[in-house]
Amino acid sequence: MAASKAAARARAVRPAATATLMALHEGIVYGPVRSRRLGRSLGINLTPAHLKLCTFNCSYCQYGWSAHSRRTATPAFEHWPSPSAVAKAVASAIRALSAQGERLDRLTLAGHGEPTLHPKFREVVRALRAVRDDLAPGVPLAVLSNASTLEQAEVREALAALDERYMKLDAGDTATLRTVNGATMTVEQVIAGLKKVPDIVIQSMFVRDRTGRIDNTGDLTVINWVGALDRIRPKAVQVYTIDRIPAFPYLQQVPAARLLEIAQRVRLAGFRCDVYGVPEALAGPDKA
Question: How far apart are CA 275 and CA 194, in angstroms?
Fold first, then answer.
C-alpha cells in the first residue's frame, strides 16, 4: 500500500510523457492567444527568432530554460526585428484578423524572452502606437515584463507610452527571487525599478515543488512579498499558478485555497487583487 501511494505521488508531480514545452516563436506575431489575464491577445515577440533571450531564468517558464540569460550575451542588433519590421508584421496581422471579423482585446509585447531587451525598444513602441492608432483604435497596447531593465531611463520612457504595464514580481526577498526566477539581481534592485514606473499591475506566479527547494508560498515569503508590494504601490495585483508545462518539470500547481489566502493578504494591505485559476464562486470581491 505504501509503495502504491508513493507511486501515485510521483505521478502527480511528474510531467506526462506527451507533455512538451511551448515552442519558440518563428516570427514576430503569434496568436491571438486566449489569455487568462488579458483576454484575446495578439502576441508580439521582439526577441530574435528561435532564441530565448531573457535576463531571468524562471523555473516555471513555458518556453524552458534560457541558454542566453545575461545581457552581455545579447546578440548583435541585426538579429533583432527592426521597428519597421515589427510594425509591418503587426499591421498585417490586424488587417487579416479584421477581415475575418475577429476581435482583439489587447496587443501584447511578450514573446519568448524579455521584450524590453530590444536595443530599440523605444522606437518599437513608437511604431506600434502608430499602427494601433491607425488600425485598432481603442485596443490597449500592453507589455509583459520581468522588471529587470527599469534602471534604464529610455526603457521607462517607452513603458510610459504603453497603455498597460504588467510587471513581474514573484518574491519579496532575494533568496526566493533567485530560486524561483533564476535572477542575478537583488530584490531591492527590482523594487527600486518598479517604484519608478507609475500605474503598473504586478503579476505574481506562485509555485512550489515537492522538495521545497522552489517555493514562494510559505507564510514568511508571502509576508515579505506583500511588504514589497506596499513599497511599490501598484494599481493592482494578479495572483496565479502554473497552467502550462514549466521549465522545471517537478513544479506543482498551488492549491486554490492557498491562492485565495495569498490574495486576501494583498487585499488587506489595500490593493486590488485578481486571482486566476480559481473557481469564480470562490474568488472573492475581485476577478477569478
Answer: 21
CA distances (Å), origin 97, targets 27, 45, 90, 227: 17, 18, 11, 43
SS (H, E, C) 40-81: EEEEECCCCCCCCECCCCCCCCCCCCCCECCHHHCCCHHHCC
Tens of pLDDT, residue by residue over 174-203, are: 999 999 999 999 999 999 999 999 999 999
Find residue 240's DSSP bridge partners.
205
Q: What is the CB-side half-sphere exposure of residue 85 using CA atoms within 13 A?
A: 14
For CA atoms 243, 247, 249, 255, give the dihedral sign: negative
- CB under 8 Å to 91, separation ≥6 — which residues? 131, 134, 135
Give per-residue pLDDT as tens, 232-261: 999 999 999 999 999 999 999 999 999 999
Cell 503598473: give the residue: 200
**pLDDT, tens digit, for every residue of 24-48?**
998 999 999 888 788 899 999 999 9
Q: Could you tell me the residue ranges of all domains in the chain?
A: 19-282
Pick 19-282's CATH classification: 3.30.70.20, 3.30.2010.10, 3.60.15.10, 3.20.20.70.
3.20.20.70
